[in-house]
Structures are given as C-alpha cells and as structure tokens.
Amino acid sequence: MPFGTTTTVEVIEAVDGDTVKVDLQGERENLRILALDTEESSGGGGKPVTPWGKQAKEEAKSFFPEGESITVEFPGDEELDDCLKRYRDNYGRPLVYVHKNDTDFQEHMIRAGYSPYFTKYGYAHFEEYHRRYRDAEREAQAEHIGVWNQLAVNGAVMRDYSSMCAWWELRAEVIQGFRRASHPSLFDSRLDYEKITSRIGEEVVVFTELNDYWRAGAEHVVVGIGSQAQPFQLFLPNVRTTEAGQRLLSLLDTRYVAEDDGVTVTKPHRSYAYVQGELKLYEEKPEIVVTAIDQITDEPPSARSE
C-alpha cells in the first residue's frame, strides 16, 4: 500500500536505469526515481558509462514498455499539485517512487544488483521502504551480484562503491536529523524553495547543502547548493582579507564541502548544515549573507540551546 500521494502516468520511454519519461497530466516529464543510482548508459554526466549501466537501462525498458500505465508515488502526502512543485531534483525533475501492479521497481533494481540503495539525498521517506531497500541491498551484497561484483559485470572496477556508500550514509544521517527537527520556522533550501522566496527580509534558519564555492570579485565568495532548479546561495563578504573570512573558508573546506568525481570520494564531508541569517534577494536568487562561523552549524539553533 502506498504511503505518499500517488497518480497514474503513461510511459513514453525509459531514459536510464533510474529515469523514465512519462506523460504526467499532459506534460512530458523525466521522473527521477528515488533510492536508485544506476550506472550510466550514455555519456554527458560525471559518472563513467559502463556495460552494467547499459544493462540497467535494458532492464528499465523491459519494466517500462512504451504506453504502459504505472503508478508514481511522491515522498509526501500533500495534494498532487503541491507535490509537483515541492518534490523536484536539482534539474527540476519530479522525485518519485515507481510501482507497477504489485512490484516496487526500486526494490527490484536494488535486489538484482542494478543499483545500491541510494541515500545521498536521504533515506527512503517511508520506514517500510527504508527497511526493504536496505534488506534488498544486503541480499545483493551477500550474493555478490551486479554493482557489488564490478569485475563480473564491467570487466573492471568502474566505481568505488565502498567510499561512495559510506559518504552517502553520512549525508543520510545528517538529513535524518533534519527530518526529526522539522519546525515551522526551519526551511529546507530545496523542498521549501517557494516558501523561502516569499520570506525575503526575514530572519530564518535554512537547512541546505554546501556543494561548492567560488570567487565573486577579488574578496568575496559565493557558496552554492548545486541546484539549477532551486538556486539558493550564501554570500561571504571580504573572506579573502579578514580573519573571520579565513575562518569561514577553513570551516567550509575541512567540515562541509565534499568532493567527488562520480567514481570515488576524495573529501567525504558532512555536506549539509543549518544556516541562520536574513534572507536577501540577489539577481532573483535568495541568499543569506554569512560573516561569522556561528551562522553555520550542525544542528538548528534551538537544538543547540537546549
């Protein structure tokens, strides 16, 4: 039985092992399937193209024949129109779980070794799914199949799943802490993007990924969250010329900003933090100006003061 809001869609084509194009309310949408991260079947991304990635696409094509009706389930129980606004990935694709008849596609792909249980952006939102996907992954690992036997499926080790999965688990635990701490005055930079854009001028706390940073002029730095669809950012003024600024950069480098190339993780840092400050608007993008390390924390301010 589904736990989130569901709707029935018609398949147009399987794009990849974890992406399917459908007709959703008359719109052609590429659905990003939650809990999965299959290997690549075509170039253009940061991950290597692999034989097993091509096989994962073939498996998805078999599961999603053109014209087939499937059920998509959102990771929340809001009205469908609200789900379509709220649950989208960095590229604007709807984030969903997919079912056909009584088959959970996510569990099927994980159990068959086409994908690890992908937790980079958090555990499955429903506890039953989380348990089933974790059990399915353990089963595939015990059988030493698919992504867990790179030499058999690819002829060479193409992705370092040991390092990737350990980093994803760290991120998932941090995100789980945020889910437990949810409060009306606390916002997620992706899920609550519309709310954030309506709170310009207010003091807020935003839970956000610190994905990367870059120079803005000679002295300033901008920190982005890695999302084209929800371009929230932090602005760090005068970081190159002040002690406080240097402390901020050091904190980002050694605690929060991670580095990976799609194959392995060279800096498996926390990635997520709570940022407190006044919301401003710069070039139509919401941002918070950060001038001190106390504005960036591992826990929401209310939890730290208890």
TrEMBL record:
This is Micrococcal nuclease. Pfam families: SNase. It comes from the Archaea. InterPro entries: SNase_OB-fold_sf, Staphylococal_nuclease_OB-fold. SMART domains: SNc. Residues 5-150 form the TNase-like domain. Transmembrane segments: none annotated.
